[in-house]
Structures are given as C-alpha cells and as structure tokens.
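User: I've been trying to design a sequence by hand for this structure and keep getting stuck. Would you show me what you'd pick, starting by listing the structure so we're on the same page?

Assistant: Good idea, let's start from the same input. This is the structure you sent:
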C-alpha cells in the first residue's frame, strides 16, 4: 500500500478518533477462559476492535516525541509499519464475523502483521543509537525517550500477546500440536523447570565467552503444598525470557568479579509461592553495583559490557542494555515487577514478582490521555531539589509519570556506553515471544 496524501488524511482522522476508545486490559484468567471457548469469530470480533485501539494509542504518542528522535529513518520506518497494520485491520470493521473466508483472511493478515513487526525492537534501538550519535541528548529528551520506550514496548508486548494467541488457537498447523497449552499460555507451568531451562541456556553462553560458569543452587519453597513443584498460569516464553536475562547478568557479574580465581561461587535461586506472589530471587556474589546506579540499570541502552561483535561467532552474554528494562516490562505486563537490590563489593539480589492468581494478573497497558501529552509538553524541566536526589534517580516513575530533575551525570553515563551493534541474537529470542 502506498501512503498517499488521502490515506494519510484518513489515518490522521482515525488517529484522532480511536484514542477516544480506551484499551480493554484482560486478565490471564480471561485469556485462558477465552482460549478454552475457542470461538474464532468471537476472537475475531474482539481483535478487530481492540488491536486498532491499542495501536492508535501508541501511534498518537509518536507525534509527541522530540523531533531529534522521530525524524530518524528507523523511527519513521517503524511508524510506517504501525500505520500500515492499523489500516489493514480497519478493513475488517464491517465484515461478517461468521464467514470462514473472512476468518481465514484475518488469520493470514495477523500472521503477516506479526512478521512485519518482528524487527521493531532492533529498528527502534537503531533509532536511539543514531540519535545518540548525532545529537548531544538533553536531559528532557532522554527522560522522554525512556518514558516512551517503556510504553511503546509494553504496547508491543500486549499487541503481540493478543495476535499470537489468536494464531496459536486458530491456525490449523498450530492446533495439531495439542498439549495442555491454551494458545501460548501454560495453565500449569512448572516454574522450576523454566528456571532450569533458562539457567542451562545462560550457562552455555557464559561458557562460550568465559570458558567457566557458576553452578546454580535451586531452592523451592511451596507454601501451599510443601512436597509439590511450583506451578502457575503464565506465558512460559515470557517467564523464561525474564529468568534468562537475570541469570545472564548474575553469571557475568560473578565470573568477572572472580576473574582471578579458578573457581567461582554459585548462583542461588529461590522460588517461593505465597498466597499472592510467586517470587523468584536470583542471588549472586558478583560484586554488586553502587547504590547510585541502581535505577540507571533499568534504562534502555545502559550497559557496562563491551560492544558485542557484529556477526560474532556466538551470541553475546551482555552488551545491549535491554535485558533489565525489557524483562521488567514482561513482569509488569501481568501486574508483576522486577527489582534489584545490590551490595557494592559483595553481590546482587534480583527479584521477579508474579501474581499467583490469574484473576489478579491484569494486563498493564499504556493509555494515551492528557497526562501523557503533558509528559511530552513541558519545555523545561526545572529542578525542585537543591541537588540531584541521591536516594532515587528515576526521573519519571512508570505509572504516575512524576517528573523529576534529571542529573547531567546520567546523560554522561548513557553517552559513554553508546554503541552500534546487531540485535540478531536478542531478536531471535524476542521474535519467538
Ligand atoms: N547481577 C548484576 N550484578 C552486577 N551488575 C549488574 C547485574 N545485573 C545487571 N547489572 C548491570 O546492569 C547493566 C544493564 O543490564 P542489562 O541486562 O539491562 O544489559 P546488559 O546485560 O549490559 O546487556 P543485555 O541487554 O545484552 O542483557 C549491566 O551491563 C551491568 O552493568
Ligand atoms: Mg543483561
């Protein structure tokens, strides 16, 4: 499809219009109920409304981005993909929900959209790096960018979840696979098994890079049934992604901190199931980080690892600065959280908190409204403390969007670690989610 002036005007109208509808967050419970019903026309009816609404909310936010970022070629490319997918889905607005031909076409279209958006993370990251190379990013733009990327990637996770679920449930090839899974959801996912898989994958990478890797001590603490494994309703690929990223970080810290020793201390993983939370605690003796950088660790593109080799022989263990912020989004998506607590000179504890009850695990979705536009509106960020606040360096909180003063040392830190690289290995993992 060519983006003619007319199409653009139509889109502009649609963009103004659709954000008036608020996205409908689903709980994990509604995903599984919906999946068990397996009613394709019902799913079609929901998606043809909901996906354009979710897309339009984030597309609207593109307009508010600083020019230095939105004018990047790669950002415009991503924007073009969103506009095209939005347009395609709009065509189903008045189509017959029970016509098998329409349902088939919709399914194929969705698959095409998933493929089109497969390289979004890589392409946006490219845009950020281009911007960092071209401009000396001012604190306000940096803050806006982090705020936008969190919302943009969260939106992407949610849209991919809905689309992939539809494809998994209704595409003929996928249906033949069978098993207990409801689409991409495992209603009785064994958390210990996922941790094992993630550990072994990280171990392989670590050994490729350092020829050594820490062992893992795994402790299960099932408060509801002592002798049983810990199970939960979840999307195993999301869980594996989070655990893998945190274990990779722990392994790298341990091996580097003990680089002069012949043996390295173990990583300790505790999985505990309470009434409300399933908590996975990953502890390492990797020397930790200073308190002042704890929050910066969650900024996109912040890394202390060297730039991974382009087309290197094996995927890198670290170096992209995406592991923590993206993992945290996967946790937050269904109402969970990831946090880090570090003791400088000793080690780090990383925590993944997830909801035990699928009824409580509600999608957390970015909504475009007046508050959002204000976040991008204010021209100047004025410090309202005499010195940068030493006890909390997160300048805008995730949900409330409170604006804080942004220190220049942060920008310096970010600029020192800017680099160009391929995101191929990371993408291979993200695309499968
Ligand atoms: N357990 C840890 N101990 C010490 N430092 C850590 C730990 N976890 C994270 N960090 C620090 O946080 C930085 C950011 O982590 P993050 O996972 O986001 O990116 P990365 O590991 O550098 O690259 P990648 O995106 O490939 O994972 C790391 O470079 C490292 O400096
Ligand atoms: Mg990492």
């Amino acid at each position: 499809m060519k983006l003619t002036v007319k199409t653009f005007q139509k889109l502009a109208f649609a963009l103004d219009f659709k954000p008036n509808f608020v996205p409908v967050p689903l709980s994990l419970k509604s995903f599984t109920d919906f999946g068990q019903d397996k009613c394709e026309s019902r799913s079609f009816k929901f998606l043809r409304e909901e996906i354009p609404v979710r897309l339009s909310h984030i597309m609207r936010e593109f307009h508010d981005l600083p020019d230095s970022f939105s004018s990047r070629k790669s950002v415009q490319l991503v924007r073009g993909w969103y506009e095209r997918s939005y347009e395609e889905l709009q065509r189903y607005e008045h189509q017959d929900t029970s016509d098998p031909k329409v349902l088939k076409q919709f399914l194929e279209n969705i698959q095409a959209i998933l493929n089109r958006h497969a390289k979004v993370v890589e392409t946006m990251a490219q845009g950020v790096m281009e911007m960092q190379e071209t401009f000396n990013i001012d604190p306000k733009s940096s803050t806006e960018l982090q705020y936008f990327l969190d919302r943009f990637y969260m939106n992407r996770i949610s849209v991919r979840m809905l689309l992939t679920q539809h494809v998994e449930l209704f595409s003929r090839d996928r249906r033949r696979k069978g098993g207990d899974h409801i689409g991409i959801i495992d209603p009785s996912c064994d958390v210990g098994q996922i941790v094992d898989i993630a550990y072994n994958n990280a171990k392989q990478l670590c050994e490729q890079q350092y020829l050594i890797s820490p062992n893992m001590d795994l402790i299960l603490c099932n408060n509801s049934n002592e002798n049983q494994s810990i199970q939960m309703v979840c999307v195993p690929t999301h869980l594996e992604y989070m655990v893998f990223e945190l274990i990779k970080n722990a392994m790298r810290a341990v091996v580097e901190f003990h680089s002069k020793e012949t043996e390295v201390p173990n990583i300790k993983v505790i999985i505990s199931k309470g009434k409300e939370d399933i908590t996975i605690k990953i502890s390492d003796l990797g020397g930790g980080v200073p308190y002042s950088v704890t929050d910066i660790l969650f900024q996109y593109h912040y890394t202390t690892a060297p730039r991974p080799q382009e087309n290197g022989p094996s995927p890198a263990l670290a170096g992209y600065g995406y592991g923590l912020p993206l993992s945290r989004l996967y946790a937050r998506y269904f109402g969970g959280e990831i946090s880090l607590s570090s003791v400088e000179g000793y080690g780090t504890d990383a925590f993944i908190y997830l909801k035990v009850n699928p009824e409580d695990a509600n999608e957390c979705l970015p909504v475009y409204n007046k508050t959002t536009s204000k976040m991008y509106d204010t021209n100047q960020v004025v410090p309202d403390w005499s010195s940068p606040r030493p006890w909390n360096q997160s300048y805008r909180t995730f949900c409330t969007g409170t604006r804080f003063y942004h220190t220049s040392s942060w920008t310096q830190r970010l600029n020192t670690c800017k680099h160009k690289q391929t995101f191929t290995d990371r993408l291979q993992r993200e695309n499968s989610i």
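That's my pick for every position. To get oriented when you compare it with your attempt: The longest strand covers residues 347-355. The pocket of magnesium ion (ligand 2) is lined by residues 245, 248-249, 318, 323 (CB under 6 Å).
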